[in-house]
């Protein structure tokens, strides 16, 4: 009997000790190269912070460029199914799966700045978008930057310049906006953009500044058209850092607390600031290479906004059968943006 009590006590002590000292390696997957801004300036510092604040018990193994297999559009399923523990991806890659958060990609809604747009996106998610992400532990929702029109052979200065232009698009809303402006969208993942522009498959791309040097787009696209300072961007790409909910729930309470403390708004701000720095660096790199950065004149910008208004009208009409009040969602997004701009 004494032996049994001793053995039971030893077993319980071992369980408690192992639970306290549990070390966890998180598999983090994304679709960009290891040299990309998101890995170097967001994911790696965040992982280092987790390690420090957990006394080395939380570690990351980062898998860039889809090293775990699949396509960028499959990342949301990979993290849900446990292929990866954490993924960085865009809801726009999974058309129809996240209709509420798509509000933030409507034309001319979000601020052009990374930090301002990221804070606006996080606020909107907390107020309106949590239900459609219930299957995940949401670590951050932030802006991947406002779209810039990157073209190889001619600048896009006016609404008329878009006529007939074939540009890569990374989201459904960006595609619809380009059609409304008179162009033709071609959907393709980031790794294919530069080769497609070089071969003349497309005339250019709609992409955030941050992406331009990551895929060497500035080497083939010599003109970059952006919205006027202080005005909403053409469209913003929503980015998410999602964690497998079961993986998170299975962690000891103290490790969950570390993740909670180092995620959410603090991570949103870190990502937004990193994308602002990357935007400035990418723009300067393009300029130093002799590329031209074009800021649209106010009258031409107004004409583009007017032409693109049909995209929001159509989206509002299509959202009704899904049980969504698209007009209210768009109004809420703009109200948040107006507060961020002040």
Largest sheet: 10 strands, mixed
Individual helix count? 12
Derived structural class? alpha/beta
CATH domain class:
Alpha Beta
Beta content comes to 15-25%
- Provide the CATH superfamily: Bacterial extracellular solute-binding protein, family 7
Indicate the topology.
Elements lengths: L1 H19 L3 E6 L7 H17 L4 E6 L11 H7 L4 E4 L24 H16 L6 E16 L14 E4 L2 H10 L2 E4 L5 H6 L5 E5 L2 H4 L8 E4 L9 E9 H5 L3 H10 L2 H24 L3 E4 L2 H22 L6 H16 L1
Parallel strand pairs: 1-2, 1-3, 5-6, 5-7, 8-10
Antiparallel strand pairs: 3-9, 4-7, 4-8, 4-9
What is this structure, in a nutshell?
By secondary structure, the protein is an alpha/beta fold.
3D architecture notes:
The chain is α/β, with parallel strands linked by helices and 342 residues long. The protein has a single domain (24-341), classed as D-Maltodextrin-Binding Protein, domain 2 (3-Layer(aba) Sandwich). Helices cover 46% and strands 18% of the residues. It contains twelve helices and ten strands. Strands 1, 2, 3, 4, 5, 6, 7, 8, 9 and 10 form a ten-stranded mixed β-sheet that branches. Helix 2 (37-53) links the parallel strand 1 and strand 2 (58-63). Helix 2 (37-53) runs antiparallel to helix 10 (265-288). The protein is globular. Mean pLDDT is 93; it is low at 1-19.
